[in-house]
Amino acid sequence: MRSVFKWTLILAVWMVAFSVNAAPRLAQLPNEAREVEGATNFYIYRRGQDWKRLVKWVYRNYGKQSRIDPVSFAGGIPLLTVESKNPKFKWTHVHFFKVKQKIFISVVP
Questions:
Q1: DSSP collapsed to 3 states, the chain
Q2: CA–CA separation, 23 vs 16, rounded Å?
Q3: What is the pLDDT of residues 12-36, one digit of tens each?
Q4: Residue 44: φ, ψ to 5°
C-alpha cells in the first residue's frame, strides 16, 4: 500500500513540474501540433500529410476573428497565413507551411 502511495505522489510531483516548465502557447493550435525542440513559437503538425484537414481546422477556428490569406505557393511550398484582427490575441500572424511531407507552424508574437 505504501509503494502505491509513494509512486502516486512521485507521479503527481512530476506532472506539476512538467506543466510548470511547459512553454505557454501564444495561439490556439490543433491538438496534433508539437513544439520543435530548441525553437520558440515553432511547431510541427503530427499529421504531416493531412494538409486539407489542417486548412479546414484553420478556417473553422480562426475565421471570425482573423483574416486568412488563401493558400499561396512560395517557391513550390504551400503557405497559409492567418493575420489577427483581435487586439487581445498574443500573436499577430500564424504561418502554416508544408515542406515535403511535413507541415510546420510558425507563430509571430
A1: CHHHHHHHHHHHHHHHHHHHHCCCCCCCCCCCEEECCCCCCEEEECCCCCHHHHHHHHHHHHCCCEEEEEEEEECCEEEEEEEECCCCCCCCEEEEEEECCEEEEEEEC
A2: 13
A3: 544 444 433 445 567 788 888 888 8
A4: -120, 140
Q: For the segment 68-106, what is each residue's pLDDT rounded down to a tens digit? A: 887 888 777 888 888 988 888 888 888 988 888 888 888
The cell for 29 is 493550435
The CB density around residue 47, as the number of other CB atoms within 10 Å, is: 13
User: Which of 44, 25, 42, 22 minimizes the C-alpha distance to 34?
Assistant: 44
Amino acid at residue number 33: A
What the block records as the C-alpha cell of 15 is: 506532472
Mean of the per-residue pLDDT values of the chain:
76
Has residue 8 got a pLDDT over 60? no
All three cell numbers of 106, joined, read 510558425
